[in-house]
Write a structure and sequence with these properties.
The complex is a heterodimer of chains A (about 400) and B (about 150). Chain A has about 400 residues and is of the alpha+beta class. Chain A has helices spanning about 35-45, 65-75, 95-105, 145-160, 165-175, 190-195, 225, 260-265, 270-280, 295-305, 315-320, 335-340, 345-355; strands at about 10-20, 20-25, 55-60, 80-85, 110-120, 200, 205, 215-225, 235-245, 290, 370-375, 380-389. Chain A is globular and about 55 Å long. Chain B has helices at about 5, 20-25, and strands spanning about 30-35, 40, 55-60, 65-75, 85-90, 100-105, 120-125, 130-140. In chain B, a hairpin with a 5-residue loop joins strand 1 and strand 2 (about 40). The interface between A and B is large, with 38 and 38 residues.
C-alpha cells in the first residue's frame, strides 16, 4: 500500500542561509522580499551555486514572497517547480522540504529553494496573538498560547506533568543558546526564573513562550547525485512525512474533538509512524532531535509522539536531563525557537545540517541522524529525518 | 443585528454551518449537529458526517450538562483592567458517537474552583435579540436543587 520509502536518500540538503535574527519588527523597513533575497544569496554561497540556477521554490504558512518574484529577481532561465504548504505557523514546514525533495528526486527541477520569511511587526506584519487589539464582546480563544495551554493543562491532568517539566525545556534551550553567537537569548535561566516569570495563559508563563522575531531563511535541495558535486558535505533526506491523526482538524485552534488519547499530544503520532517507515528508522536511530518549541509543553508531547518515551513519560525524562546535550537525546542544540530565533522552524533545519556537517556550536559527537519536527497543532504538521551522506 | 457584529461571536464563529447553533441558543436550547443517517453527533460543525460520510444532518437538542475537559485562563489580556476570564473545553453529556467537546467559557468560577472533570451545566448569555452564546457554570446536583 504505502510506498513512501521510494524517496529515501534521493534528495540532499546542499546549502542554507539566513539574515541576522532581529526582534519583532526590527527588519521590517523594506518589507519581506529583501530578507528572502539575502537568505537565498547566502544559501547559494554555502552550496556553491548561483541564485540564477535555482529553478524551484517551495514554502509554507502562506509565505508572502512568491516563487515568481524570486525567480525573476535572480534571472533564472526557467522556473520549473513551485509548491506551498497549507496551514498556518510552522506545521507544514517539513512538508515544504518534502515537496522540494520530491521535485529534485524526480527531475522536475534541478535546485529547489525552500524559503520562509517572518516580519512580524511594522507595516508588513500582523499577529493573531497580538495583544494590541481591543477585546471582542465575547472574548474567548485569543492567542496561540491559550490554545496550547489547553493541551498542556490536559497533559498535566492525565499524566501528572508539572510546571517543572515545562521549565526544564526552557532551561535547556537557554543553556544551548549560551554557546550560539547567533541566538537572540543567550542568558541562562534557572527554574526559579521560569516559575517567577509572568503568567500569560495559565499554566503557561512568559518563559514557556518563544519570542516572535524577524528573519529571512533559505535551504537549497538538490538530487543526491547533484549534491555529490557541490561544495558541502552531503546531508541526505532519509525520509519525510506530513499530516495529522484521525479527526485532528484544527487541533488546539478549535478542533478539540480528536480521540481523548490524542488530545494531549502534538498531533504528530501518525506523522511519526509514517516518517519512521519512510526512512527505515526508529527513534533509537536518532542522534539529535530538533523539535519545534514554540511552547515548552509541545516539546514534551513531541518526545511522546515520536516514541522517544512512552506516552505520558516525557516529564520525568526531561527532569532527568534526557534532552540536555549530554543526555540520552540532545534536543534543540541551537537553542530552538525558545532561545535562538522563532522562524517557523527553519533554524531547526539549519541546526540539523550543522550537526551532520559537524559544525554545530553544541556538536553531538558522531551525529549521523537528525530528526526535525515541524510545528505541532495545525493540520498538516510534518517531520523529517536527515542523515549524513 | 448586523452580520459584521456577529463576526465577533466566539468559536465556532458565525458561519452558514453554525447559524442554527447560535439561533437555538437564542431560544434557550443547546443543540449539536446530528447525522440523520447514522445518528452520530459531531463537533465542530461540519458539512458531512465523520463516521458515515452522509451529508444529511439536523440540529439536535442535548441535555446541556457536561464536564470540563481542559481549560486555561487569559492571565494576559489586551486590556488588563477587564476581568480575567477562562477558555474551557466542555465534554457534553447525552451525545452519540465519539465524545462531543465544545470550546466556551465557564462562569462563576475562579482559579481555585475551575478544574478538569468539574461538572457543569449550560447557561445562555444574550448576544443580540436573536442569538446567544452558550456558556457554562458549575452544576448543582439536581437532588440538592431547592435545598440551597
Amino acid at each position: 500500500m504505502h510506498e513512501g520509502t521510494w524517496l529515501r536518500d534521493r534528495a540532499a540538503f546542499v546549502g542554507f542561509g539566513h539574515t541576522r535574527y532581529g526582534r519583532r519588527g526590527e527588519l521590517a523597513a523594506n518589507g519581506p522580499v529583501p530578507l528572502v533575497v539575502e537568505a537565498v544569496v547566502k544559501a547559494c554561497e554555502d552550496a556553491g551555486v548561483s541564485p540564477a540556477d535555482i529553478d524551484g521554490y517551495c514554502s509554507y504558512s502562506n509565505d508572502p514572497v512568491d516563487a515568481g518574484t524570486l525567480a525573476s529577481t535572480f534571472g533564472a532561465k526557467a522556473l520549473r517547480f513551485t509548491a506551498m504548504g497549507w496551514g498556518g505557523g510552522g506545521g507544514a514546514m517539513c512538508g515544504a522540504f518534502l515537496y522540494a525533495a520530491m521535485a529534485v528526486a524526480t527531475g522536475q527541477a534541478d535546485l529547489v529553494a525552500v524559503t520562509h520569511v517572518i516580519v512580524q511587526g511594522g507595516a508588513f506584519g500582523r499577529r493573531w496573538g497580538g495583544m494590541d487589539r481591543p477585546l471582542p464582546r465575547f472574548p474567548l480563544l485569543a492567542s496561540p498560547g491559550q490554545s496550547f495551554a489547553l493541551a498542556a493543562r490536559r497533559h498535566m491532568h492525565d499524566y501528572g506533568t508539572t510546571i517543572d517539566h515545562f521549565g526544564e525545556v526552557a532551561i535547556n534551550a537557554r543553556r544551548n543558546a549560551a554557546n550560539n553567537p547567533e541566538a537572540r537569548f543567550r542568558e541562562e535561566i534557572t527554574m526559579e526564573d521560569h516559575h517567577s516569570s509572568r503568567m500569560i495563559a495559565d499554566p503557561l508563563r512568559l518563559l514557556d513562550f518563544c519570542m516572535e522575531g524577524d528573519s529571512g531563511n533559505c535551504v537549497i535541495l538538490a538530487s543526491a547525485e547533484r549534491a555529490a558535486d557541490l561544495r558541502q558535505p552531503a546531508v541526505l533526506l532519509a525520509g519525510a512525512a506530513m499530516g495529522s491523526p484521525y479527526r485532528w482538524g484544527m487541533g488546539m485552534f478549535g478542533g478539540n474533538n480528536m480521540p481523548a488519547a490524542d488530545f494531549a499530544s502534538a498531533g504528530q503520532r501518525t506523522v511519526a509512524e509514517d516518517l519512521y517507515r519512510n526512512a527505515g528508522m526508529g527513534p533509537e536511530d536518532v542522534d539529535v532531535a530538533n523539535i519545534y518549541d514554540h511552547f515548552t509543553p509541545m516539546v514534551l508531547m513531541g518526545l511522546e509522539d515520536f516514541r522517544f518515551v512512552p506516552k505520558g513519560e516525557s516529564g520525568p525524562f526531561v527532569a532527568e536531563g534526557g534532552i540536555r546535550r549530554e543526555g540520552k537525546l540532545p534536543v534543540n542544540t541551537h537553542g530552538g525557537n525558545l532561545a535562538e530565533v522563532y522562524n517557523h522552524g527553519m533554524s531547526h533545519v539549519f541546526e540539523a545540517m550543522r550537526q551532520l556537517r559537524g559544525t554545530s556550536c553544541n556538536q553531538v559527537d558522531g551525529a549521523e541522524v537528525a530528526l526535525v519536527v515541524a510545528g505541532s497543532s495545525p493540520s498538516p504538521s510534518s517531520a523529517m529525518l536527515l542523515r549524513k551522506g | 443585528m448586523s452580520e459584521q457584529e456577529r463576526a465577533e461571536l466566539p468559536a465556532p464563529g458565525w458561519d452558514p454551518v453554525t447559524t442554527g447553533y447560535w439561533k437555538a441558543a437564542g431560544q434557550g436550547r443547546l443543540v449539536v449537529q446530528r447525522c440523520t443517517a447514522c445518528g452520530a453527533h459531531r463537533w465542530p460543525p461540519a458539512w458531512a458526517c465523520y463516521a458515515c460520510q452522509s451529508t444529511d444532518w439536523e440540529w439536535d437538542e442535548v441535555p446541556g450538562t457536561g464536564t470540563v475537559f481542559t481549560y486555561t485562563w487569559a492571565d494576559q489580556r489586551p486590556d488588563m483592567s477587564t476581568p480575567i476570564y477562562n477558555i474551557s473545553v466542555i465534554e457534553l453529556d447525552g451525545t452519540k458517537g465519539e465524545p462531543v467537546r465544545i470550546m466556551t467559557q465557564v462562569l462563576d468560577v475562579d482559579k481555585d474552583t475551575l478544574r478538569c472533570d468539574l461538572p457543569v451545566e449550560v447557561t445562555f448569555v444574550p448576544f443580540d435579540d436573536e442569538v446567544a452564546v452558550p456558556m457554562f457554570r458549575p452544576r448543582v446536583d439536581s437532588s440538592l436543587r431547592g435545598v440551597r
